[in-house]
Amino acid sequence: MQPKIKVGDLAGESLGLSLEQLANFVRMGWPAILLMVPSAIFMEMSTTEISWNESVITDWASWVKGVALSFFGWIVLIPTIVRHYQVAANEAEIPGGILYLKWGNRETKFLLATILLVLLVCFAGLGALVPFMVLTFICSLMSVSAAVMTALQFVGFGGFALLLMWFMVRSLLILPSVAIEGRIQFGKAFDQTKGYFWRLLGVQIALMLAMIVAQILVYLAALVLGLLLSLTPLTFEGWSLGNILIMTLSAIVSFFFSLVYIVLGGLVWQRFNNPDSLTVADAQFAD
């Protein structure tokens, strides 16, 4: 029998459990947060906006510092991520204490699996873009009209986005299986999600829409608060305090939804691998 995935129920459960565990996530992973906050500031300071939707890196030293701090922050956060995958799958309990930096074989495998996933996405992306780039080059030599070139670009990048979306859905169980089972199992993860693409995609789209709505609400709230408190005219090293407030609140929302996707992975793993641990209401199966 195969587990029955309900889009609305799974998305709602991911959000609800994430709200319950957010305080624990912060308590266990606060050293990583201390590294990621200056990372975001360095990354922001390294770019200059040239239009509303385009910016360029003008300070490479700050950019490198931001990337380095972000990478080290992520490594420090790995033990917390691994434990929350386990908690979401009902395979472990939240530890006590004000710091959690346990590192063992499981965490090392999780680090390696994540790097492999990133490299795989990069190589797959390059492989998908090469035919498109060759076709675009040939069309440019043939003096094809601008409308045709625009259409080709739309189709090419649209196809790449669809390929990336497919991979993200089908690889959803790779990191949870490493965190929970302690094994890197690319084949098993892809096999288990076979036949569930559209439902799992629906869950991820629902969560993505929730994140977009949350970011919009944060922006509006920060804008109103900034106007009420007259923060917008004030500056700190060239930054308006209103912008700093918006960036800080947006970072909090992004941090929360990172936990949401961790919880989602743990819940999906539980439904496929340990349905006996589900509640009676959740343990529904399709024939």
TrEMBL record:
Taxonomy, superkingdom: Bacteria
Keyword annotations: Membrane, Transmembrane, Transmembrane helix
Record bears the keyword Heme: no
Transmembrane annotation, as ranges: 25-43, 63-82, 110-134, 154-175, 196-229, 241-264
Stated name of the protein: Glycerophosphoryl diester phosphodiesterase membrane domain-containing protein
The species this protein was found in: Parvularcula marina
